[in-house]
Amino acid sequence: MHNLRAFLDATGWTCIYGLNLGTAAPDAVAEEAAFVIHALGAKLEYLQIGNEANNYVRKNIRPSTWDPKAYVDEWLIFARAVIKRNPRVKLGGPDMGAVRPWMKQFADQAMPAVGDHIVAITDHFYAEGPPTSPESTMHNLLFNTKILHEIEVTKEAGAIAKRPYRMTEVNSCYSGGKPGVSDTLGSALWAGDLTLDLVAQGFCGVNFHGGGGKEIRASLGGALDGDHVASSEAADSYYTPIAGTRASGYLVRPIYYGMLLAAQMAGSDLVQGSFSSAQPSLAAYSSINVDSHSLQSAFFNKGSEPVEFAVRSPHQLKTATVVRLHGPSIEATSGVTFGPEISPNANWRLPAEEQLRPTSDGSFVLSMPPTTAAFVSFR
């Protein structure tokens, strides 16, 4: 735990810490919670109790009678034990996929019981899976529509609970990802678009799942399904944004660049915009950065054809700086960048790669090659 605190201090990150509901006792969990709270201090966002408890029957952790009410009844026993030991504790939940009966039961039952301690409604989402499924394809990832139901159910639970809602675990394909999909430029485009879409829908944060292959194999019973697709065993999970070891060094996977693009809008206020003609392969998000007094936009072309369009704003804008997310191909697992390539231990800064000038009518013309994204700062 002290190493975790040192890591958080070094990176500037904070922690959402999960406690064991499936195979632990309430008193032991309360004791662990006290230790975590003391060790992590201000770096702890909140605690969660149980991970995807709606899957406990399938994993033979609970009997077939386990249902949403049984889950919340047991969750409350653990929560009250944690609260008794730690009266000022902050909790999140239910930390599972957005299955309406389970999410609604948590919001309906847990909030009246211990609502003062619950600070967030939390959700998990994987666009595809398992990796061995023929339906887990690049096209289905880029044009995935399952997220629409996920957003709807999570927003409902957030409204019932009157709490912010967060995506605390998300990635492209469950069980460690699919090689040739989860580790490609396509995953970067999907991750950047998904993150900004979730923020536009009111999610207060997004956490991508990652980690070493050894650790994720252990959590999945000893194997990654993606290894069967690749016909070899990978050192890291296929979807992890950061891969490597202390001995070999660390590197960023393509998906990290999609996250990095979306992160450029952190701390700004999203504004509404629209395309004059809707195209499923295109997505765009805009925000106002109060500190720099600039309009920022992120554009995604997930299609196989180049596009060119004019960007117009009711505000008088004089210049536009473009930084592009691109790679050799949609299937590329290397050579993917957003601005300069990130090397181990390197400090990254948003560069000024390309300048656009307004046309005579005050608009800016942006050309986008196939399967690329662009972050544009207007002033």
Radius of gyration: 22 Å
What's the overall average pLDDT, rounded? 94
Helix percent reads: 25-40%
The major β-sheet equals:
7 strands, antiparallel
Task: Give the CATH H-level superfamily of the largest domain.
Answer: Glycosidases
Overall 3D shape: globular
Q: How do the helices and strands follow one another from N- to C-terminus?
A: HEHEHEHEHHEHEHHEEHEEEEEEEEE
CATH architecture of the largest domain: Alpha-Beta Barrel
Can you count the helices? Answer: 10
CATH C-level category of the largest domain:
Alpha Beta
> How many domains comprise the coordinates?
2
Instruction: Give the oligomer, counting copies of the same chain as homo and different chains as hetero.
Output: single chain
**Termini, distance in Å?**
45 Å
CATH topology of the largest domain: TIM Barrel
Number of strands: 17
TL;DR of this structure?
With 379 residues, the chain is an alpha/beta fold.
What layout of secondary structure does this protein have?
Layout: H1 2-11, E1 15-19, H2 26-40, E2 44-49, H3 68-85, E3 91-97, H4 100-114, E4 118-128, H5 138-142, H6 146-161, E5 165-173, H7 185-200, E6 206-208, H8 213-219, H9 225-230, E7 242-245, E8 249-252, H10 254-263, E9 269-271, E10 282-289, E11 294-301, E12 307-311, E13 320-326, E14 337-338, E15 354-356, E16 364-368, E17 372-378
Helix pairs in contact: 2-3, 3-4, 4-6, 7-10
Report on this model:
The chain has 379 residues and is an alpha/beta fold. It has ten helices and 17 strands. Helix 4 (100-114) links the parallel strand 3 (91-97) and strand 4. Helix 2 (26-40) crosses helix 3 (68-85), helix 3 (68-85) packs parallel to helix 4 (100-114) and helix 7 runs parallel beside helix 10. The termini are far apart.
